[in-house]
Design goal:
67% helix
Length: 372
């Protein structure tokens, strides 16, 4: 299930992928609270704008904070061609691979229930069956792995496009009882209708609600767009060529996503096809930037802080959902509150993040990488 034994890092590992994953996790595990702390200190138009960017749009639209979850799924996809082909090259059978894929999917799904589904509260009234990023990864990973293992690259692309179009067709053409077809309001869309029909009282309780069962189709397309980037990075193309292809894919996806937005709005809560393209476009652009700076130009030292987090991404994600590192950090900085004035929130946020990062750094130095 997992491996926490010391191990050596592969020499051919692409550092920018780990750094980008760590960059994403940085915001999840504490980056947002650090910047919110700066806003509490300075409270001006600039910090207010930055703070606003670290919140989700209510329904339609897109902000940088809406990129956090799709970037996590996208990077999972980037790694898949490397991981699955490595197993095939060492002689693993497809049957063995499928066993590993299903096992990993189940573990991720259960971890998601622990992180956000209140599983460990042992209270059925609070249980949420499908409501977390790790579960979206599980669904997207399972579907994408099946596609990746059975189809050539051109058909992987075709299948991804078909899934995007199929999701659009279902959402816009299938009538919902009492609402009709093509309704994309929080209460009247097909995806939430299916979730309520199947989950009942165990549905995601957010307001407005996220959708999961039908949206698993588009979770998979986000992962598959990452898979395409993984194929590119595995190719024999020169480094700068790969960067240019990533940039072209990024710009193309963003433009197509916002064009599609006129007919099928960008809505993260539904994970609409237009949202997939828009968010994946920014994922491609970020990957291009990280790959150019780290792996093409060779500037690596600055990324160490992100790599430390990225090498144990799921472990740190779960740890921050199960333990309160803020309380540990408070032990070291509570006494400063009477001296620091409006810096209090910022200092407490930095202390909490420092505790997490130092643990991750210790694990990295010891080569302890928890994998599923």
């Amino acid at each position: 299930m997992s491996n926490s034994e010391p191990q050596s890092l592969p020499k051919d590992r692409i550092m920018s992928i780990d750094a980008l994953r760590g960059f994403d996790m940085f915001w999840i595990i504490g980056g947002w609270s650090i910047f919110r702390g700066l806003h509490e200190k300075f409270d001006n138009s600039t910090t207010q704008w930055l703070s606003q960017q670290m919140s989700h749009v209510k329904w339609e639209g897109f902000r940088p904070w809406d990129l956090i979850m799709p970037l996590f799924l996208f990077v999972v996809g980037v790694v898949m061609p490397f991981a699955l082909n490595k197993r095939l090259e060492r002689g693993d059978s497809k049957r063995r691979l499928y066993f590993h894929i299903v096992q990993r999917t189940v573990i991720l799904f259960v971890l998601g229930m622990i992180a956000q589904g209140h599983l460990l509260e042992y209270d059925l009234s609070k249980l949420r069956i499908y409501s977390n990023t790790l579960q979206a990864i599980a669904a997207g990973y399972l579907i994408s792995a099946i596609i990746l293992l059975n189809l050539r690259i051109v058909w992987q692309i075709v299948t991804t496009v078909v899934l995007l179009l199929l999701f659009w067709a279902l959402m816009m053409l299938v009538p919902v009882p009492e609402y009709g077809a093509g309704v994309l309001t929080p209460d009247g869309n097909l995806a939430i209708y299916i979730d309520r029909l199947i989950f009942g009282g165990f549905i995601d309780g957010t307001d407005p609600p996220y959708t999961w069962i039908l949206s698993s189709m588009t979770f998979a397309t986000t992962v598959m767009l990452g898979v395409m980037a993984g194929h590119l990075l595995r190719s024999e193309k020169k480094g700068i060529e790969k960067v240019l292809w990533l940039l072209a894919a990024g710009v193309g996806c963003v433009v197509l996503g916002w064009i599609w937005n006129f007919w099928f709005p960008v809505i993260k809560h539904l994970w609409t096809s237009s949202f997939v393209l828009c968010s994946a476009g920014w994922c491609y652009l970020l990957l291009a930037l990280f790959y150019l700076v780290i792996d093409v130009w060779g500037f690596k030292k600055w990324a160490f802080g992100f790599v430390v987090i990225g090498m144990n991404a799921i472990a740190v994600y779960m740890a921050t959902h199960v333990f309160s590192f803020r309380h540990i950090g408070d032990i070291f900085v509570d006494g400063l509150d009477k001296y620091v004035g409006n810096w209090e929130a910022f200092i407490h946020a930095v202390a909490a993040f420092a505790v997490i990062w130092l643990i991750m750094c210790w694990m990295y130095r010891r080569k302890l990488f928890i994998k599923i």
